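Supplementary Methods S3. Input chains for the assembly prediction are listed below.
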Amino acid sequence: MNDAQRIRELTALVKEHAHRYFVLDDPLIADGEYDRLFHELLALEKQYPELAQPDSPTRRPGAAPLEGFSQVEHRLPMLSLENAFSAGDLRAFEDRLFRFLNQAVPREMLVYAAELKIDGLAVELVYEQGLLRQGSTRGDGNRGEDITAQLMTIATIPHQLHGDFPPLMEVRGEVYMERQDLLALNQERALNDLPPFANPRNAAAGSLRQLDPAITAARPLKFFAYAIADTGHAPGCDGQIQLLSWFLSLGLPVNTLVRRCPSVAEVIAAFDQFSALRHALPYEIDGMVVKVDSFALQQRLGSKARAPRWAIACKFPAIQATTRLLAVDFQVGRTGAITPVAILAPVEVGGVTVSRATLHNDDEIQRKDLRIGDTVFVQRAGDVIPEVVKVVVEKRNGTEQAIAMPSHCPVCAHPLVRVEGESATRCVNPHCPAQRLRSLIHFCSKAGLDIDGLGKKNMEQLFTSGLVADIPDIFSLRREQLAVLEGWGDKSAEKALAAINEARHPPLAKFLAALGIRFVGEVTAALLEQTLLSLERVMDASLESLLEIAGIGEQAASSIVEYMHDPEVRLWFARLAQAGVVPQAGQAVRDDLPLSGQVVLFTGTLATLSRTEAKKLVKDNGGTVATAISQKMTCLVAGEKAGSKLTKAKELGKMILTEQEFLHLIHR
Ligand code: IVH
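Predicted structure tokens for the full assembly:
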């Protein structure tokens, strides 16, 4: 093989492994091996710069964590938007447009594009000759942070554009996180004693502002493109709605919920529609953005200092309210961490009555300078836990009292400790009943073995009645014990026992995550299952052998060893085995199959496969079968005479395959 061939081969290899590592979080080779390939490529490219491939991974930061974020200047400033809070504001917006255009434009020519205002973080992607060269945050509008490596880990951001792209293109859009993903991430963070992200914007920002792109890669971020810095770089597009279709053809993800509104009345109707849709969407929106559709008119209207004249944001009323902080309760978590919880005078926030909100930890209380008796702003962002945002200092009358963290555990009275460098104050008594109860609740919860009928309330009852003191006790419950409990009957006892029975053969990863070992969430538990393949081997794994598993760090490894060597835990496992609880390895969802992560829908007549066979092939290859067209579907396989589903899938910008292409994809 000559050097030119080797460069091509290395380029492909390093790209593939970088993708597996950064994007899929599923490396096939050791880090050292990757570094060797990377440096061999780097050396050859230095020797023959003219042979370096334009999409070479060495040109993309991403292999090694960055030292710090450098600043980048936006060629054209990234503006923000003015806000409209009422229908009146929207009419006033249109009046301003007319005045500015000197009424020289007939009203019918003013057509608007109404889009969702995605709650995330605005970024700019610079494509040169179709290749993603640079990505940055908005910053102050003129200069932002260089987060190229971080953005490159987002699966839906194309590294290379398809089709007819201009030589230079600055795409702007929003990086966001779906509600479900944010919820799961927050659960994982709670497990590691990290404060939850309060909203998708913080989650996106927090995940992108990671110097180590590998951390960004592990976060489920997504992207929607919604603007181009220079409309002169969008050949053939007359306006915003065309721009979005063109983006799709280039392979850029766009949000397809756009309304073409020929009048302000229709803009207002679109706002009502979007408001109604809001909670059904898988991601958070904080309003609607209205843009004058025509690029020619946008040009004429131009911009003011901070915002363009041709667009406006219609914000949803903030889901915030003020109320009084009555008291602070201190909860003991599963790991002993003490969480201060604000007890509030009940107040309605976005249709839900809130009477408690997390205060996270002592540092947060100090930072916000909260005092009992204060009037506070409370905020609820989607499904995220209500939060106290800040104090209304002006409302103080001098009777407010400072909040002190307790010195002893409110449940077991054991002295609390605060480890240097940690924000949590902790009860370190391993026998603290509060921790035990929390562990039991976690074990049966959705994040654990998901035992129906053993939710929080029932578990509390089983614990206080003394029927369940530890995990093995769950599996020796008898019907007559349950049926006599207050609020239970034969039926509910029967149901709970059936669910407990079903939980006797859990996937090993699920079982390990359910135990609530510190620093062992779903991801680490899955790694343990994949590499060690049995509970016995996890129990006996040494610190060294755990550290050899890619993805398991110092903290998790020592926490696992410590947990597994606790004599009480050993006794539990023996009792569990006796009760017929045997975790099963090797059933975990695989993410390395051709259709892993794909949601496939079939339409039309297939030539060689029956529908049943086709569906089985999807499942055998790691995919899921969709039953209807939806945003969740990722791929449509269209046979002969495919009809409206094909049109719809095209509109949604989904991957469309012929039967042959589908078979090719799964190597058949
Ligand atoms: S257009 C000059 N479209 O809202 C126009 N912005 O307050 C620039 N945003 O910083 C923005 N969804 O982060 C536009 N469909 C959308 C948007 C959107 C969310 C954000 C963006 C921007 C902020 C403006």
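The pocket of 2-(butylsulfanyl)adenosine is lined by residues 79-81, 115, 117-118, 122, 138, 174, 226-227, 289, 308, 311, 313 (CB under 6 Å). The domain at 71-315 is CATH 3.30.470.30 (D-amino Acid Aminotransferase; Chain A, domain 1).
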